[in-house]
Amino acid sequence: MESDYYQHVKRCMKCQVCTDNIHVAPSTLHNLTSPWSFFIHDWSNRTHDIFILVAIDYFTKWIEAALYTSITKSVVVKFIKRDIICQYSLPANIITDNGTNFNNKMMIELCEQFKIKHHNSTP
Fold first, then answer.
1. For the sheet containing 51-57, what is the strand order?
2. What is the DSSP track for the chain?
3. Model confidence over 77-95: pLDDT tens digits?
4. How do 93-96 and 63-68 pair as beta strands?
């Protein structure tokens, strides 16, 4: 009976369209060995007039967030310096999305200055 079910699902077009199987090649994982390995991301409301810059410590699940009217590269660097480095110490790693406000010359200089490893999350 169970094998009949599997065969039916494999042949049913609706079942194949509605399935949630995702066939993506595995990506490399980032090992977490200590606190202060941050993931930084930005979110906005529907009208895009308020942005939230969020940093999450992967190890302890601690969240730092700040509201901005726009998120530029200088805003991101100031947020990292003021809200992460000055309050908690230097993070070992920072993982961001692929946005230009996270991947720019100012961010590279900040990471080189404080010897922080910067990674991008998978798209």
1. 63-68, 51-57, 37-44, 93-96, 117-120
2. -HHHHHHHHHH-HHHHHH---------PPPP--SS-EEEEEEEE-TTSS-EEEEEEETTT--EEEEEES---HHHHHHHIIIIIIHHH---SEEEE-S-TTTSSHHHHHHHHHHT-EEEE---
3. 999 999 999 988 888 888 8
4. unpaired
Q: CA 22, CA 26: separation in Å to the nearest integer?
A: 11
Cα–Cα distances (Å) from 33 to 36, 58, 59, 97, in that order, read 10, 10, 8, 21
Whether 58 shows a pLDDT value over 90: the answer reads no
Domains and CATH numbers, the chain: 26-120 (3.30.420.10)
In degrees, rounded to 5, the angle at the alpha carbon of residue 69 between the alpha carbons of residues 43 and 123 is 25
Amino acid letter, 28: T
Instruction: Tell me the residue type at 40.
Output: I
Q: Global pTM?
A: 0.67
pLDDT in tens, 23-42: 666 666 666 555 666 777 77
